[in-house]
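Morning run. Coffee first, then this:
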Amino acid sequence: MHRLAKLDHQYVWHPFTQMRDWLRGEPLVITSGRGALLRDIQGREYLDANASIWTNLHGHNHPRLNAALRRQLNKIAHTSALGLANEPASLLAMRLVRSVNPAAVGPFKTGPSSESGRQRKGRHERRLRAEELCKVFYSDDGSTALEVALKMAYEFCRRTGRSRSPRFLSLQGAYHGDTVGAVSLGHIDLFHETYRGLLFRSDALMAPYCYRCPFNQAQPERADARQYRCCRWECVEQAKRSFQRQKKRSNPYAALVLEPLIQGAAGMIAQPEGWLKQIAELTRSEGALLIADEVMTGFGRTGDAFEDGTSGRLYACHREGTQPDLMALSKGITGGYLPLAATLSTATVFEVFLGEYEEFKTFFHGHSYTANPLGCATALASLDLLETQQSRNGRQRLERVLAEALTSLWRFPCIGDIRQVGLMAGIELVRNWRTREIIPLREKAGIRVCEAMARRGVLTRPIGNVIVLMPPYCMTARQVCQMVEILESAMAEVFGFSND
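And here it is:
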């Protein structure tokens, strides 16, 4: 075993990893990367098929991101955001606000309001149109971005008189991070049940999981279940009932928290077209805040192309013309280079925290590395890349190549569903596609397939029995086809059938 692997075994505790299993084998030690390729300590190369846990957008060792980081490093690495501003953070905040407010989403209210608190509360209860996201609060990662949004929403609802004890609604299978507040919004028992005694209670809304929806009357086909589903939007009706039940308790929901278009850790659960728009309109009609967790889905990951030929929408919400009251961003914000997160808020939320010093209306929350200049400078360079026509065209082309390559998987009987949204895909493994029979987790089917892929030079990580493919935007068409071909070979090995 290599010396570095031994040191890892001796000293490192890995996240979401059964360490007894980890200590039985020699770990893969990554030493370098370029583009979509990673290289280990033995000199072997691998395709980075999940963009280093969904963070790396433009590829490793990108010259423009490297240059931006070096330029900032020659100025200053970090300075506190408590009582001080810095250049990259100010510029990035402006760019983020511009990027999250496309005119096509709908009419926006801009600038601070002159209304009294009582008038603001009344307007909040009535409004059906989204406001502009105009304020940026920086933090460190996706969990903290959601924690910030949660605290803002909690105090907003208390101060506006909507609720003394704000209650939150999130989706079945929700995962929004690992800080205590974010975990409280989660509904994956495997991850969250252990900590139940630490958490506040939140309610679960039926997720639109078409492949396993009890209301979907369609028989299994060799296609994405969203395409052949047969239902009457019962999931939306369930949501309406949830809001009404809570309202009858004289404590209407403070906010609905969701990942727009696709739930990541739930198993890459892709939402059918139109669901997000209906749920957003319902949430607004009920006077609740809408919190969008775009940690995974932001920065072009859900695709750029629209039926009318327009492009350049970087956020999942905007693909269905919706705008949240609070939006959480992280993962790809720096192109996978440095930890950074941002929570964007409307003026309506921001204003309830304004007051005289002695009123103590301040948002009492912060982090030592908030608005880190190195991260913000790299994020600015990443946005520059994302907004070029070359990058937009490349993402659209790669999305089409991935969709075409994935069609070859339907010939395998272990494939139950293939869910693609933009440059994200979840391939659900089953015992029998005709019956949708689930493979017990103890058989580790997803893990064994990913291990077989690693032996063939492709790295990704499963979510239970769902294989995740989320390539960096720099991956070539040939590499995408290679990635899917290696998945085919790995499934043939694990399930014992021919790959002809």
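The CA atoms of residues 30 and 40 lie 4 Å apart. Good start to the day.
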